[in-house]
Amino acid sequence: METLLTGLGFSFFLYFFISFGISLSFSPVDNYLVNTGAFLDSTVHNRRFVSDSSGSTHTHLSSPQSFSLCAGTLLPSLPPIYHTARVFKAPSKYVFDVKDPGTHMVRLHFHRFSSPSLNLVDSRFHVLVNGLVALTNFSGGNSLGPRVIEYLLCVHSEKLEIAFVPDGESNFAFVNAIEVISAPGDLIPETAQSLIGDKVENFEGLNLQAFEVVHRVTVGGAKVTPFNDSLWRTWLPDDDYFKLSEGSTRVYFSGKIKYQEGGASREVGPDNVYDSARLIESNNASIPNVNLSWEFPVMEDYKYLVRLHFCDIASVSLGLLFFNVYVNGHLAYKDLDPSAVTNYLLASPFYLDFVVDADRSGIVSVAVGPSNKSMAYAVDAILNGVEIMKMNNLMGSFDGKLPAELVLKGSPRRSVDFLLPLIALVCLLLSLSVFMRRRMDKVDSVPWSKLPMDVPETNPKQGKEQLSSKV
Q1: Which residues form the Malectin-like domain (predicted)?
Q2: What is the pLDDT of residue 192?
Q3: Using one digit for the tens of pLDDT, what is the confidence trace for 58-82?
């Protein structure tokens, strides 16, 4: 009887644990995973990508001319979604039903494989996501492997559209897979800090903006795959962006990350991001005079959301860690006290959001370092993760300065080629008009004087005599 009760108790505990774990995992209302160009569904990281040939009632492909393409060589190391592609020979679009208004994640998967009939390297096309210009003159990326491009946008309509427009030169576009997922409500908050030089102001309406994820890195740790992220994201190691290794230390944490309301949730950042970090530590009575710095290449003339992830997994006690945060060389946060932010709880994650402008350097820099309140024999700075997200410009574009109307015509490059000579001609005509106007004004402004009335009359013969006498 005791054994039976023990067994029942264990079974109940196991059931409760599994149910509790499942209830904690994020379950999006809108969750479209499309295996484009495939005739069968595929499973990647325990997620089923449904063939766009299955005739789903919630996903509609509108294309006057498209076909499925299979790679000439199937590489077992690649997920099956990259073995096929949907190729478009004319402007086409996917339309998704939106049941949960708000922020949505859109991921586009590209892999430029070749087949006996077509080489995807020769593609060139444009992509629009819900009316925003996402990509122009795109050819699937420059890398040999797959490329995933992620967008976050606020959707309040009942439909979300993704359009593919072939460029006139290549005559075809393609995509390997598409994800459209409704995001948790706390992923993008309403406000952030706008950093203009050394001036910090509130940025309102952040959750109404659109973003392209440019960089997502875990600091000090190993790569985080979609399998280990509740929103199926990839976090790359920071080694390629980290600029100072002298005086820094990597730290790894084997304890429990303590998520709490008001801080970062597991959807904002997974455990595998917060359980590693780089830090500056004072091992004697002096405080190191160094900063940890990272540099991220970006496209100039855009605003960027810089999200910095923090979790004090290194301090031995509360109230010992104080440091400064710098973005683009400017002081963004002075004397940051993680203990105060987390209501005095160690290993509790939080994040800071800053909106900054990218200058002509093409770099967004991030740094952390000791402050005037830093203490000896203690941790003096820490950083766990960084995300850099591009915001669309005033033309509604993530890639260029042309509006969607011109991109939909099929060739922004040709539009530019047409517009530039036209603008040059108008400027030339305006310059010519100004020149002629000034010339006429100059002629009109020549002083006029009355001819003298007492000049004696002479005949030609007298004139000649006068000239000969002068000679």
Answers
A1: 46-391
A2: 98
A3: 889 999 999 999 999 888 899 999 9
